[in-house]
Design brief:
8 strands; globular; 3-hydroxybutyryl-CoA dehydrogenase; NAD+ binding; binds 3-keto-decanoyl-COA; alpha/beta; 3HC_DH_C; N-(1-d-carboxylethyl)-l-norvaline Dehydrogenase, domain 2; binds 1,4-dihydronicotinamide adenine dinucleotide; 46% helix; single chain; 6PGD_dom2; 6-PGluconate_DH-like_C_sf; Rossmann fold; 8-stranded mixed beta sheet
Length: 289
């Protein structure tokens, strides 16, 4: 266990809800900050629904589920993060939105030793650190989707992150949350996405150029390579808006055509086809998916 007891998660979407859930299940006091009442209601429903499923599947006792709920609180005011030991930012993959959140956190988080972390998939941590006056305490703590299921956390210090911050963040991820840590340098995409992004984008290009149907591309990787799901279904799970944003920031960093978002992906995002979260992407999930 670490000295980190009070955590805030800024952004309670797909990832923020999962991060808040695993922190509450680990016994921490967790504050979820969102942009307004509707977004907070959605975050609360996501977390409660997931805790209920964990209880129904006997991964938690009813008492443990109820205890986790009592450790969670919700706010639309980022100023409420003032007393936190650790804040994990999980807002949309947009550099301007994230730097604004880090600048605001820098003003409000009062503890001098507080860690400000980002769950970004691809934005260099240094860009976020420089929005604050405490770059030594800014670090990437990158979780994987679904957070309650996947054990990995990538730990990404920037050139200015202090060793103490990196060590405390690593203790938090392994000791408190029981995750498996890999250490990565501060390059867009870190380790996993530097490998995964070209693969997912290649699958989209295959579909776009008529190599095979979506179902066949996915079945190839599920049955031929024992992946738990194929690349197009995985892109739908991640969210095609997020997939596009990650491709954009990796292409901006490396100017490597393998990272460039294919036109089909751009058009699907233009059309609001964001994958599972919007009900339709490469597959149909029905209205309430
Ligand atoms: C181009 C740019 C793109 C780059 C994007 C990068 C984004 C990032 O920055 C980094 C990422 O996270 S990349 C995504 C990594 N995630 C994956 O690869 C997921 C692969 N899929 C899976 O693991 C399973 O299909 C999965 C677990 C999802 C579902 O498994 P199954 O198909 O076997 O379905 P189930 O039988 O329903 O589930 C298996 C067990 O998992 C539990 N579970 C599923 N979804 C859950 C969720 N959302 N929350 C909590 N638990 C969940 C489920 O309950 C079941 O548990 P058991 O009953 O105990 O087996
Ligand atoms: N979707 C995925 O599979 C993964 C995503 N990530 C990263 O996690 C981050 C979040 O991604 P998702 O959860 O998928 O996105 P999402 O779109 O599901 O959730 C983002 C949330 O942030 C909220 N938000 C936006 N601006 C805010 C602000 N100023 N203050 C508070 N909340 C704000 C939105 O209301 C929304 O609920 C991104 O950086 C993404 O790259 C990392 C690993 C996997």
């Amino acid at each position: 266990m670490t000295d980190i007891e009070k955590v805030a998660v800024v952004g309670g979407g797909l990832m923020g809800a999962g991060i808040a859930e695993v922190c509450a299940r680990a016994g921490l006091d967790v504050l979820v900050a969102e942009v307004g009442t509707d977004a907070l209601d959605r975050a609360r429903a996501r977390i409660s629904g997931s805790l209920e499923r964990a209880v129904a599947k006997a991964k938690l006792t009813a008492e443990e589920g109820a205890d986790a709920e009592t450790r969670l609180s919700y706010t639309a005011d980022i100023g409420d993060c003032a007393d936190r030991d650790l804040v994990i930012e999980a807002v949309a993959e947009d550099e301007a939105v994230k730097t604004d959140v880090f600048a605001r956190l820098d003003k409000v988080v009062a503890r001098p030793d507080a860690i400000l972390a980002s769950n970004t998939s691809s934005i260099p941590i240094m860009k976020l650190a420089m929005a604050t006056g405490r770059a030594g305490q800014v670090v990437g703590i990158h979780f994987f989707n679904p957070v309650p299921v996947l054990p990995l956390v990538e730990l990404v210090p920037s050139l200015l992150t202090s060793n103490e911050t990196t060590e405390r963040a690593a203790d938090f991820a392994t000791g408190t949350l029981g995750k498996t840590v890999v250490h990565a340098r501060d390059r867009a995409g870190f380790v996993v996405n530097a490998l995964l992004v070209p693969y997912l984008l290649s699958a989209i290009r295959m579909l776009e150029s008529g190599f095979a149907a979506a179902e066949d591309i996915d079945a190839g990787m599920v049955h031929g390579c024992a992946h738990p799901m194929g690349p197009l279904r995985l892109a739908d799970l991640i969210g095609l808006d997020t997939t596009r944003a990650i491709a954009d920031s990796m292409y901006a960093e490396f100017k490597e055509p393998l990272y460039a978002p294919p036109p089909l992906l751009l058009r699907m995002v233009d059309a609001g086809l964001y994958g599972k979260k919007s009900g339709r992407g490469f597959y149909d999930y029905g209205k309430d998916a």
